[in-house]
Design brief:
Strand content: 15-25%
Shape: globular
Largest sheet: 14 strands, mixed
Distance between the termini: 33 Å
CATH architecture: Alpha-Beta Barrel
Helix content: 25-40%
CATH superfamily: Aldolase class I
Number of helices: 12
Radius of gyration: 20 Å
Number of domains: 1
Bound molecules: S-adenosylmethionine, iron/sulfur cluster
Strand order of the largest sheet: 1-2-14-13-12-3-4-5-6-7-8-11-10-9
Amino acid sequence: MVERVIPVADHRYLATLPVIPAALAAPTGHLLDRLQRPLHDLRISVTDRCNFRCSYCMPKEIFDKQYGFLPQSSLLSFEEIARLAGLFVAHGVRKIRLTGGEPLLRRDLERLVAMLADLRTVEGDPLDLTLTTNGSILAKKAAALKQAGLGRVTVSLDALDDGIFRRMNDADFPVAEVLAGIDAAERAGLGPVKINMVVKRGTNDHEIVPMARHFRDRNVALRFIEYMDVGATNGWRMDDVLPSAEVIARIGEVFPLERMPVTTVGETAERWRHAATADRPAGGEIGTISSVTKAFCHDCNRARLSTEGKLFLCLFASRGHDLRGLLRSGASDAEIAAAIGLVWQGRDDRYSELRGRAEAAAGSGERRVEMHYIGG
Ligand code: SAM
Ligand code: SF4
Ligand code: SF4
């Protein structure tokens, strides 16, 4: 059957209506793609809007008042999200991360959290249910999210210095409120909190050691993320990337670190922790996510569902699979599950491993999807 290519509602990205196979194979919980990678992890973007304008993600010059964000009618409803999530879980998904845009801007998000918390993996266990947030309204929401069934949160924090933080979020948002959000999440039982810092050389790299110092004695996992060439709007240059090896070297000059063992397959972070010294016990965890200098595509078990229900198989994809189209066409669960199965089985994406090589450079000529639209 020939796939039909249709532009999405806002004409920004192409999407293909997935094929429903003639024979509907029921999900087995063990789905492998063409590179033998299982489907374990689903990221769901619940809004394409954000109250920050981080230059590496939603630069102000492009995402201004004129920018056409998705209309409400384009978004998947909570019922649609939960229905799709259930089908992904039947295919073997164990971990769901809510993201965006800024997920806490989506009204009544707790209701969706409660619906997802009811799902069980194929083994009968609760999902690992998490959320990534810029932390700006976390202090207000942490207790309700926990009560709805959220397991953990990841908070993005690019600097401790208030001036640098305000410049990086480009919304003049004070760092103290994000720090209060992290504290509130811990108090609510949403820990251990993960903290993501995107490192941009010359912009916030001098905050690496202060961040390591600040969180040294806290039960948080600090993650340093290499600035990525995701999307088409952030003006990425390799010169702006500070390799993870340098991050660890800089911290190691000040604090002794020890390597932590790998605990799960597909773990994207390499992990260390503050080693014990004569005057203090071992401290908090430090991880690096080296998407640019040490690609981990061979273990990538992650699918992404955009705000309007397009399935993306890679952060660097330019084309999605229109699951909302299937949902709203009246397809049955069995049909949608079989279509998802077929899409994943056809997956061979490994952009970061090819980055810089002729294949990636040539690309498809199509515009790459933006991070705030499919979520990080
Ligand atoms: N608004 C939420 C937040 O900032 O945590 C959730 C969405 S945001 C797109 C998810 C993660 O992607 C954040 O930790 C952010 O720092 C990261 N991110 C965005 N653009 C990036 C880029 N170009 N390179 C590396 N990480 C990026
Ligand atoms: Fe918003 Fe998160 Fe993107 Fe920053 S990284 S602009 S907080 S979506
Ligand atoms: Fe996964 Fe694509 Fe990132 Fe590789 S580049 S790790 S396939 S999302």
